[in-house]
């Protein structure tokens, strides 16, 4: 039996979360470089996987809001709240993770990427790590669909850091958020999986080092 009180509470939490994030991130200055890497591909009708490390995803979540891009969310309560907030600010979600309904979610990712001009966001080390070590999902999806992976990194001059299996960053107000997109990566079906993972990790680590350098300067 459905609980209307619980549904109302979750709706209120999502509404508050939406406005809190908009308030905090709206009080930051943004420096964004390299967006043309994914926009050029979309302009040609190609689909794209945008990939970044899990700990950096909140700035991406706000920057790309309103574009009807696809994110991946698990089925547990916290993920459900994230999905509800995301839907209110213009995201679409595929439900599942590498631990929950992973095969179903992967099939949905492949189906979306086979359509022209779609974007799916994948954090290759999510949802539970190890931190900054790519799992095969994003690469395998790229191999099966021909979609490019556009690497991305974010960091803020003012931030809270929350330690779990990784370090999850939340921007504080009145800072500057640096965002970098990198050159597209392509992987064929015959490419060696470990070499693919090494290429993706190297691209993400290089962008991460650069944004971290910029927020220190």
Detailed description of the structure:
This protein has helices at residues 4-26, 36-43, 57-63, 77-88, 102-113, 137-145, 193-216; strands at residues 29-33, 48-51, 70-73, 92-95, 119-122, 148-156, 159-163, 167-171, 176-181. Helix 1 (4-26) crosses helix 4 and helix 5 (102-113) packs parallel to helix 6 (137-145). It has seven helices and nine strands, in the order H-E-H-E-H-E-H-E-H-E-H-E-E-E-E-H. The mean pLDDT is 93. It is of the alpha/beta class and 217 residues long. It has a single domain (4-216), classed as Glycerol-3-phosphate (1)-acyltransferase (3-Layer(aba) Sandwich). The strands form three sheets. It has a five-stranded mixed beta sheet with strand order 1-9-6-2-5. Strands 3-4 form a two-stranded parallel sheet. The termini are far apart. The longest helix has 24 residues, at 193-216. Helices cover 44% and strands 21% of the residues. It is globular, with a radius of gyration of 17 Å.
A few lines on this structure:
With 217 residues, the chain is of the alpha/beta class. It has helices at residues 4-26, 36-43, 57-63, 77-88, 102-113, 137-145, 193-216; strands spanning 29-33, 48-51, 70-73, 92-95, 119-122, 148-156, 159-163, 167-171, 176-181. The chain has seven helices and nine strands; from the N terminus they run αβαβαβαβαβαββββα.
The CATH topology assignment is: Glycerol-3-phosphate (1)-acyltransferase
What is the H level of CATH, i.e. the homologous superfamily? Glycerol-3-phosphate (1)-acyltransferase
What is the global morphology? globular
The CATH class turns out to be: Alpha Beta
Considering DSSP H and I runs of 4 or more, what fraction of the residues is helical?
A: 40-55%
Mean pLDDT: 93
Task: Work out the count of structural domains.
Answer: 1
Enumerate the strands of the largest sheet in spatial order, edge to edge or round the barrel.
1-9-6-2-5
Q: Biggest sheet, open or closed, and with what strands and sense?
A: 5 strands, mixed
Q: Helices and strands, in N-to-C order?
A: HEHEHEHEHEHEEEEH
Give the distance, in angstroms, between the N- and C-terminal Cα atoms: 56 Å
Strand content: 15-25%
